[in-house]
Design goal:
By secondary structure, this protein is mainly beta. The protein is 11% helix and 48% strand. Helix 1 crosses helix 2.
Length: 284
């Protein structure tokens, strides 16, 4: 295990009817910048708003340097509802061979908990090498909505797929059963990314992952219908159900903001169809 260089541990619980941050620990350069409260409006007229706590994470450094290792641990107790994000792009700096950066995230959701984790895009600089792993442990009635967007580098400098390696693993358990496993590996120097059937002319990739035992085929139908109505977009997008209790939206394009716009629309639709909630408006 690489030497730990940044850490966040946060635990949320319902106290007196409101979700609260009941325990936190952070080690520089990572920290919890602030929390704030949302009152989610319900789509049904006259229904009371649903409480949710918003949380911002911050990296005080320029980003992940060679050899850095970040740990993020988040736990939601029964019924807790949290929106989690960070303040800016995660930047991965160059590293020499065998001195890459790593990031490990563990998300634990107890019964009826809701975690919406929507970080800003990940940017890999020239010669960057990142191994990332996310583990999610879900309990009965809990819901995880998680997005990621991958950028090919500092495109305004001509950095497009100049990074060394990107490995991204995601594992999701439901009541102790492994229900989803993704192992993504991109090595631009040895892969023909522009080949037909691969990235072709696209440079950015994003995903929206939704895991909940509430999900069913009708939720996929609603998402596909919503995505088919996109106008003025030059992205490629698709959606499918996973093996069990999961739905994934994939999008590829040439600009991070375009992917974020599509994924946000899909996220808003999922909130409406799963929880009868209006869109969550996030200011940054």
């Amino acid at each position: 295990m690489p030497k730990l260089t940044g850490e966040i541990t946060a635990q949320f619980a319902v106290r007196s009817g409101f979700t609260r941050l009941v325990h936190k620990y952070h080690a520089s350069p990572l920290k919890i910048a602030k929390t704030f409260r949302y009152e989610n409006e319900m789509c049904m007229d006259g229904a009371p708003p649903m409480d949710q706590l918003g949380v911002y994470m911050m990296d005080c450094s320029p980003g992940l340097m060679a050899g850095d290792h970040y740990e993020i641990n988040v736990r939601l107790e029964e019924g807790a509802r949290v929106f989690l994000t960070n303040q800016s792009f995660t930047k991965v700096h160059p590293s020499a061979e065998d001195q890459g950066s790593t990031q490990h995230q563990i998300l634990r959701l107890e019964a009826e908990a809701l975690l919406e984790y929507m970080p800003e895009p990940l940017m890999l600089y020239k010669d960057a090498d990142l191994f990332g792993e996310t583990e999610a442990h879900l309990s009965r009635g809990s819901t995880l909505i998680y997005s990621d967007v991958l950028c090919p580098g500092r495109t305004h400098r001509g950095e497009i797929f100049h990074y060394t390696r990107y490995v991204n693993r995601m594992k999701v358990w439901y009541e102790g059963e492994l229900i989803f496993y993704q192992n993504q590996r991109i090595e631009p120097l040895v892969m023909e990314l522009s080949s037909p059937g691969c990235w072709e002319g696209e440079t950015h990739m994003g995903n929206l992952f939704v895991f909940s035992d509430r999900l069913g085929p009708r939720h996929l139908e609603v998402i596909v219908d919503k995505l088919s109505q996109l106008e003025g977009q030059t992205v490629r997008v698709g959606a499918s159900l996973t093996y069990k209790y999961g739905l994934v939206v994939n999008v590829m394009g040439r600009h991070a903001w375009e992917l974020q716009d599509v994924l946000t629309k899909a996220w808003h639709q999922i909130r409406r169809s799963l929880f009868d909630l209006t869109p969550l408006l996030v200011n940054k």
